[in-house]
Design a protein that fits this description.
about 240 residues; alpha+beta; Jelly Rolls; eight-stranded antiparallel beta sheet; two-stranded antiparallel ribbon; about 30% helix
């Protein structure tokens, strides 16, 4: 996949948040975090909340059309659908989530073994994907509920243990992440820096290379993402 040339080297997708009910009675997505990437929601329709858990505790942010919210690495987040919730997702470091920059809040016994985690996270193929997406969401909600309860009781140890487990789980694939960042957002920032220096020196030659690009949406059935049904876009040249 070519690097994203969308501003900031980001990824763009459209998300219809799941409307099936989880074990705690809330309808919505799978609680998870990203280890390197920052994610943003631009709410385009419906109502819901964004539940987050960080070292600062649990928070719930109201979502409705026009709200823009973003969350940095380490923020456990969960989209709750209160009716027709749809968002445009902007994800920094395009390609990194696909390379494994996400860990779901499964219970500790699942997180402790990479093979057990991979099995729980897998959607398989065919008609079973929808059921598997709901099963992994429900398992992650079970772990999230435990983490939230511990945080609200003043116990920071459970969240610290989850962070440590998340770091261990991605060790086998994180080696390539620095290159993805270097070839994407870092390269774009460097190019912008060089253009600014050139203009300040009286050289605007790069303007002759201006162009407009229309993103190509993914074809076929929408993907089963962690938080809902996804339509992704190809953002490279």
């Amino acid at each position: 996949m070519s690097a994203s040339t969308f501003p900031g080297g980001t990824a763009v997708s459209r998300l219809d948040v799941y409307d099936t009910e989880a074990p705690d009675g809330c309808s919505g997505g799978t609680p998870h975090l990203h280890l390197v990437s920052t994610e943003a929601y631009v709410v385009t329709a419906g109502r819901g909340t964004l539940q987050t858990l960080t070292g600062a505790g649990f928070e719930e942010i109201a979502l409705e059309e026009g709200v823009v919210v973003w969350f940095t690495p380490g923020t456990i987040h969960r989209a709750v659908n209160l009716g027709g919730l749809r968002v445009v997702v902007l994800m920094s470091n395009a390609g990194l989530p696909e390379a494994g920059d996400a860990v779901m809040t499964f219970p500790p016994d699942v997180l402790a073994d990479p093979d057990t985690y991979a099995s729980a996270a897998s959607l398989g193929s065919g008609d079973a994907r929808a059921m598997r997406a709901q099963q992994r969401r429900d398992l992650a909600v079970t772990g999230f509920t435990r983490l939230r309860a511990a945080a609200e009781a003043g116990d920071s140890g459970a969240l610290a243990d989850f962070y440590d487990a998340a770091g261990r789980l991605v060790l086998d694939r994180a080696g390539a992440w620095a290159d993805l960042v270097s070839e994407g957002p870092l390269a774009q920032a460097q190019e912008s820096y060089e253009r600014a220096r050139a203009v300040a020196a009286g050289d605007a030659h790069h303007l002759r290379d201006g162009r407009a690009t229309v993103a190509t949406p993914s074809a076929g059935e929408r993907a089963f993402g962690m938080c809902g049904r996804l339509r992704t876009y190809r953002l490279g040249d």
